[in-house]
Amino acid sequence: MTEGDPSGRPAKAATIGELGEFALIDQVTAGLSPSGPVVLGVGDDCAVLRLAGDLAVSTDTMVEDVHFRRDWSGAEDVGRKAVAACVADAEAMGAAPIGVVISLAAPASTPVEWTAGFAAGVRAECEAAGVQLVGGDTTSAAQIVITATVLADLGGLPPLTRAGARPGQVLAMAGRLGWAAAGVAVLARGFRSPRAVVVAHRVPQPPYGQGRVAAEAGASALIDISDGLLADLGHVARASGVTLDVDTSRLEIAEPQQAVAAAIGGGDPLLFQLTGGDDHALVGAFEADRVPEGWVVIGRVLGGEPRVLVDGAEWDGPPGGWQHFTS
User: Fold this and answer.
1) Domain 170-314 coded CATH 3.20.20.70
2) Which candidate, 263, 280, 221, places its Cα nearest to that of 89?
3) Phi and psi (nearest 5°) for 120?
4) Which of 29, 126, 257, 286 could form a disulfide with 42, with the two C-beta atoms 3.0–4.6 Å apart?
């Protein structure tokens, strides 16, 4: 039995059940203070934000053994991934992310060390993304479930939706594709290398700030590639009523992806690029002369029925993408 202080709280709790809800909240939020557009942060019933334009809001949920495995990812990795995946959605609207709200459900047996690492990861990714942790919730559950909500400011610009792509435009991308999928392929076989792709699965690297860049450059449609390039471009094609044609000669297949494809049976590493998700690249529709610096043109927008072509032809490979309840 762990000795406690006079209040009855364990002096050195090993699990969050021993630590208690409010001490856990204190652990996660210690030292946080509002700044900039955040008028009121953690510690009250609501956070308060001051915005220059319309508010963009998105929520993302991660479930243990569905979105992450604790034998594959450390607690800090999970915290970082929760923030990154959520903020990427705000980037895809052309909004400037301001704050995130994180809810954590976990078994009482979860080690305090794990939640401390998770909180450290949340803070680290918030700093990388330029957002503040402004609130959240904790509760008990049979497994770890994390829900992150991002609050972002459109700053007077219209939102970039999936419905604005027009024939004659080009498709351009910021970020990278296929790294996380290669990492999953490695981890599923019990390996931990190439390390670069394993890290990419554990901690995505969205192109922070580029959503706003795209909006200011006049993009007419934008999407976060979370479920795979072909799958997500399919959403744009249907919403915009256009055909999208991906030029695979423009996709850079990195050496680690080639190594993984060779190691798992000589498969085509292009599959990681076309069907792999979780890298959170941004792909938008632009006028050809207005593609922002650092973005890579990867295809074009055509008239015709809503569909996605690969090098001008129907894709006859695996569909890729992820659909909950059916995948």
Assistant:
1) no
2) 280
3) -65, -40
4) 29
